[in-house]
Amino acid sequence: MKAVVATPEIYMGVMDGGIPHIVEPLKSLGHDAILFDNLKYGDKEFIELINNFKPDFIYCGLIENQLSYDTLKYIKDNTDSVIINWFCDDAWRFNNFSSKYCTAFDYVVTTDKESYIKYKKQLNYNNVMLSTFFCSPKIFYPIETEKIYDVTFIGRVHGDRQKMFDIKI
User: Fold this and answer.
1) Is residue 151 part of a domain?
2) Cα–Cα distance between 45 and 125 in angstroms, integer?
3) Residue 147 domain-assigned?
């Protein structure tokens, strides 16, 4: 299988997704996978890559509108590639972003149960899957170490996550 992974190579200063968590696992399974850095390159380069590489599968991880709706819809309607997007911020971006972009994809994935219901009931968009966040076990794995804290949070504080830290113990 030939795959294009359209995600940022580096996001917020960290190699955050495309290569270690998607491209490398696909390659380890024998697939021909390449990264398209959708923060570095735009619509014209994306269309050119898709027309030349002719992937079976396109995985997008849009943060905002770095690729236009029209470009994505064109690829969906005019190529044999299956195009999917992982909307990982639906809890706070469904109304102003995901709901407007979903029809440009053959399938979408959300991590938010309420948005999953909205796709189906409000938008009548049924090619939606409910999932969770993921990571590569080659990068993140258990290590034996001394316990220092009772509770540890790993991630970015945004949206309503701050509420989790306002608990009085």
Assistant:
1) no
2) 29
3) no
Q: How many residues are given for the chain?
A: 169
94 CB-near residues (< 8 Å, 6+ apart): 87, 110, 112, 114, 115, 118
Q: Which domain holds residue 128?
A: 2-136
Place of tokens 């509770």: 151
Lowest average pLDDT, out of 91-95, 114-118, 134-138, goes to 134-138
Total number of domains in the chain: 1
**Within a domain: 154:** no
Q: How far apart are CA 102 and CA 108, in angstroms?
A: 7
Q: What is the pTM of this model?
A: 0.78
Q: Establish if 42 belongs to a structural domain.
A: yes
**Residue (of 18, 3, 17) closest to 82 by Cα position:** 3
Q: Per residue in 123-146, pLDDT tens?
A: 999 999 998 766 666 666 677 888
Q: Are 59 and 86 in contact (CB under 8 A)?
A: yes
Buried/exposed code over 1-23 (b: 16+ C-beta within 10 A; e: otherwise):
eebbbbbbbeeeeeebbbbebbb
Residue 38: CATH number of its domain: 3.40.50.2300
Residue-wise pLDDT tens digits, 147-162: 888 777 666 666 666 7
